[in-house]
Structures are given as C-alpha cells and as structure tokens.
Design a protein that fits this description.
Radius of gyration: 23 Å
Structural class: alpha+beta
CATH architecture of the largest domain: 3-Layer(bba) Sandwich
Helix content: 25-40%
Distance between the termini: 52 Å
Number of helices: 15
Largest sheet: 7 strands, mixed
Strand order of the largest sheet: 5-4-14-15-16-13-17
CATH class of the largest domain: Alpha Beta
Number of domains: 3
Strand content: 15-25%
CATH superfamily of the largest domain: FAD/NAD(P)-binding domain
Number of strands: 21
Length: 496
C-alpha cells in the first residue's frame, strides 16, 4: 500500500506512549504530525522503575539534560541488580552492568580467572568488576577515563509516572499534539483492514496513516480490533501476578536494585530519591493475592506509604507486533516480567526499530516482516535469559523451585548452558540485549562452574598470571577511595 505516512496516531500515554512520541518527533521531525490520545480516567501500569544502560543513549538522542532528568523524575543511579536466594536460600550474587577484568584478544577474562582459581587464587570474579565494587560500597561518580578497564556503565531508577510526565512536557514543546479522550469506536478500511479513524466517546474523530498501540495489556488496536494473537510463555515463566507498593526512602540510597526470591516468586526493591519502590512477582497457583500481599508487606524494610496495586499478566509476546498499519509498543506488544528491568528498554527498541524501518512512502510487507522477525528474536532472547534465573537453581524448599529446575527449557537456552558448562565459552547472539558478561555473571551466580577453560589462558606462566590478576584487581579498586557516596553524588550533581 503506497500511501505516504504523514500522520502517526498514538493510542495511550504512559511511558510507552510518550517515549514513542518523543523519539519519532525528534528523529523524523516536522514532516510527521503526531497526535497522542489518552484519558486521565485510565490509570497506567508502571512498567518498571528500573532501567538498563541503553536508556542513557535515548536521553542523549532526545537532548535531555541528565541533571534535570534526575531531579524531575526523582531518579537514582543503578549499577546492577543484587540477586538474593535464587540459587539457594541465604545466598546472593550481583549482576552488574560492567564486566570483570579487562578485554582480552580471542579469550575472555573469566578463562584466566578460572585458571587462577585452580592455582589457588581464591578471589571472587566480582572483585575484578568496578560496577560491583561501587555498588557494594554505595559509591558513584562519572568516571572520565580513556582506559576501558575503568568504565562504569550505569542506568537509572526513576518514578515511571514522573518520567511519563517529563516526556509529555518535552513532547508538547516539540509539537506533539495531545488529545484527551476515550476511544469508543475504530473504523477500518473495508478492503485492506487498515485502521483509518478513531472515534472518541465525546464524538471527536481522529484520523491517521500509522497507529501505535500503547494501550497496555488491553491491546485496543493490535488485539481487540486486529486479532493479532498472543504466544503464551507461562509454561516457562509461570508467575502471572504482581503487587506494587511504595514505602519510605532509606537514609542511605544504594545504587542497585534488589531481587529477592521467595518460595513462589520474587520481590523487588528499588531506591528513589523520595521513596522506595517495592513489589512482588508471583504465581497465583502457589500464592493467593492475600498471601502475596502479606509476604510483601511483612518484608518491607521501611513503612508503606500507599496501598498495594495488583496487576495480572501473562508472560509472552504478541504474534504480530506490527499488523497492517498498527504497531504495538509496551505492554500491548507482550510482557516479560521485570526481573532484568527490560520493559522500558523494549519500548525503546520497538520505536528505534520502527524508525529504522519507517514506511514514509507507504507500508510494504517486507518491512513489516523484518520488524516482526526482529521483535520476535529480541523477545525470545530476553525470555531465555529470564528462564535461566529460575531454571538453574538448587532450591528444594518448594514445589515451585523444584518444578522450575526440572522443566523442559528452550533448545536455544539449553545449548548456551551446555556450551558454558563444558568449557566456559560464551557467544553473544546477534542483537542479544545481554552481553557475554551478563550471561557469565548469572550462570556463575546460579551455580554453573565450567569444567574447563580456554587453552590460551595457559600461555603465560603461573607467576605472570598471578601478577596480571593482581594488577587488574588493584586498578579496579583504585578509584573507590576518591569516589563520593551515591547520595553525595546526587546532592552535588542534581542540587537536590
């Protein structure tokens, strides 16, 4: 269909809607009219208050000042995630955004570390990771070093509703039109099935060439109108409920997320400048809503300052995330539980993908097929990474964990685990969101120690290897004494 795309209509606000509007308007610019339809009467589901490092690139592309952003969204710094009770109870490990050691030609650092272990050097892999060290000590600052060994990748925790408001203000300044209203009726072209018009409850008519569905789980356009289907992954990821509740902030703000496993789900703890975000992801087959709420509220470390918000979901993906002239973004496109803080990133990557394939001279089937192929791969790769946390456990205290350990897993994940278990090999799949360092930390943290390491690690003497490991460890530890605390950084940088 060769109709020039002159106007995009976004259905739904929240983080998904306003992020979509911001990126499209900023990157494609004046030739494209953008209208966002939302209603104040419809609440938004906070897709998560924790993010991963690519969000910084998004903010940079939009030209957002970091200090303003931190201040207006009550944001804090995130260096990674602390996983507690996942392999066994009363044990923890860290998934940092950094990487241990330094980059090595043809052979990843952990092979040298593993040989060091066999030589009696019992230093934890995480002692070679600056992100972990800063998180452990509650420190942060922008490190301006040309040496990649001192890189300190980071993301943010922020108030999702404040972020949406921040983006709305940004969008309205650059020409995005906001229309208040509820969609009551949708008109489609009789021949093509393309959506042509939205009719609002108050009688307003909204026409457009391309529609972005940010209506959340309802999938107002992508599912209710176009019946795009849903691929259910709950047999691999059976948690289907979440509860969220805010609590009072702590005196000391730690720069990481906590993910605390319970007998049939897990609890998150996210520090913000003005409060803590808390929640529980759980299986309704194992906990009632009341049991889950009691468990969450009894495990808060500060006083609750709001009522629990209950959310139902089904893990999986929309079979067609681009169908006819509708693209689903955010919860309308699928749901992967927020274990690795990927929800907001999936919004970002969906819109970036759309920009790459933007059909300015009309929608063609090859672009739609490519978009859907890439979306599927991305969802499946993240799915595998999440399953890894659950499947690779040694807990025997509940049916939930035993079932997760013994379940059949996707072949793609089984292969990755077998390869690592045999000889520590890790390869990043094309466009995989998670780097080798992420897979490494979770596999080690969940209990896989490779049976062998790469022979390149034997190319230096025991003395040289010991010296190298000591030097790298010293370099990673060196900045700690001069870095401010996380709270000091926020106060100085944001003037909060």
């Amino acid at each position: 269909m060769k109709n020039t795309i002159k106007k995009v209509v976004i259905v739904g606000g929240g983080t998904a809607g306003w992020m979509s509007a911001a990126l499209l308007k900023k990157m494609i610019g004046a030739p494209l009219a953008i209208e966002l339809v939302e209603s104040e009467t419809i609440g938004t589901v906070g897709v998560g208050e924790a993010t991963i490092p690519p969000i910084r690139l998004l903010n940079q592309v939009l030209g957002i000042n970091e200090a303003d952003f931190l201040r207006e969204t009550k944001a804090t710094i995130k260096l990674g995630i602390m996983f507690e009770n996942w392999r066994v109870k009363n044990e923890q490990y860290f998934h940092s955004f950094g990487a241990s050691g330094r980059s090595m030609a043809f052979c990843q650092f952990h092979h040298f570390w593993q040989r060091g272990q066999q030589l009696g050097i019992d230093t934890s892999l995480w002692e070679y990771d600056l992100n972990y060290l800063c998180a452990r000590d509650g420190k942060f600052a922008h490190i301006n070093s040309k040496d990649p060994i001192l890189e300190l990748p980071y993301a943010y925790h922020f108030d999702a509703s404040l972020y949406a408001a921040f983006l709305r203000k940004y969008c309205e300044k650059i020409g995005v039109k906001r229309t208040e209203g509820l969609v009551e009726h949708v008109e489609q072209n009789n021949e093509t099935g393309f959506i042509e018009k939205l009719i609002l409850k108050d009688g307003q008519e909204i026409t457009g060439d391309l529609f972005i569905d940010c209506s959340g789980f309802r999938g107002l356009l992508i599912q209710q109108e176009l019946g795009s289907g849903y691929e259910d992954w709950s047999h691999w990821l059976p948690c289907d409920r979440a509860i969220a509740v805010p609590s009072q902030r702590f005196e000391k703000t730690l720069p990481y997320t906590r993910a605390i496993a319970h007998s049939a789900g897990w609890q998150w703890r996210i520090p913000l400048q003005h409060r803590n975000g808390n929640g529980m992801v759980y299986s309704s087959s194992h906990y009632s809503d009341e049991q889950a709420a009691d468990l969450l509220l009894s495990n808060l470390e500060s006083k609750a300052i709001g009522e629990p918000n209950f959310i139902k979901f089904k893990t999986g993906r929309r079979r067609k995330q681009w169908n006819r002239n509708v693209i689903a973004v955010g919860l309308a496109s699928g749901f992967l539980e927020p274990l690795e803080s990927t929800s907001i990133h999936l919004i970002q990557s969906a819109i970036v993908r759309l920009i790459h394939l933007f059909p300015h001279n009309g929608i063609n089937s090859s672009a739609v097929a490519e978009y859907n192929k890439q979306s599927q791969i991305e969802f499946e790769q993240i799915r595998d990474f999440l399953i890894l946390h659950y499947h690779l456990n040694e807990r025997s205290d509940s049916h939930f964990w035993r079932d997760m350990r013994h379940m059949e897993i996707p072949d793609s994940l089984a292969h990755k685990m077998e390869l690592f278990r045999a000889n520590g090999k890790l390869f990043r799949e094309q466009n995989d969101l998670f780097l080798e360092s992420s897979w490494l930390q979770v596999m080690l943290g969940q209990g896989i120690m490779p049976q062998d390491y790469h022979p390149i690690a034997n190319n230096m003497s025991a003395e040289k290897l010991t010296e190298m490991l000591t030097n790298i460890k010293n370099i990673k530890h060196e900045p700690l004494s001069s870095l401010p605390s996380h709270d000091e950084f926020l106060q100085q940088f944001c003037k909060v």
